[in-house]
Amino acid sequence: MTCLLFSSRRSRADHRRPGPARAPSSPAVACAGLALSLLLAGCAGGADRPEPAAQTQTQTQAQTRAKSNTQAREASRDDSSARGFRYGFELQGVENIGLKQQLLSASALQRQRSERLLSFATLQSRLRDDLNALSSVLRSQGYYGARLTGRVRRQERRPVAEIVVAPGPRYAYADPVLAFEGDTRPPDEVVAALRQRLTVKADAPALAKPVIDSQGRLARALPELGYPFAEVAGRDVVVDHAVRTLAVTYRIASGPRAAFGATRFDGLTSIDPAYLDRLKPWQPGAVYDQDQADLYQRRLSRTGLFDLIEVNARRPDTPAGADQDGPDDGGGGAAGSGSPVATGRGDSTGAAPTKTPDAGTDTAAGQAAGQRVARAAGDRVPATMVVTATEAQHRTISTGAGYATTTGFEADVTWEHRNWLGAGERLRLTGRGAQISQALTAEFTKPHFRRLNQSLLANLGFKRQDTDAFTERTATVGVGLDRQLTRRWSIGASADLTYSDITQSGVRDQFGLAALPINARYDGTDSLLNPVDGYRVTVRTAPNLGVGGSTFFFERNEILASAYWPLDAAAHWVVAARTRLGSLVGADTDTIPANRRFFAGGGGSIRGFGFQDVGPKDAEGDPVGGRSVAEAGLELRWRFAETFGLVPFVEAGNVYDDTLPGFGSVKAGAGLGVRYYTSFGPIRFDVATPINPGPDDRRVQFYISIGQSF
Question: Pairing mode, if any, of strands 551-566 and 573-585?
Answer without folding.
Answer: antiparallel
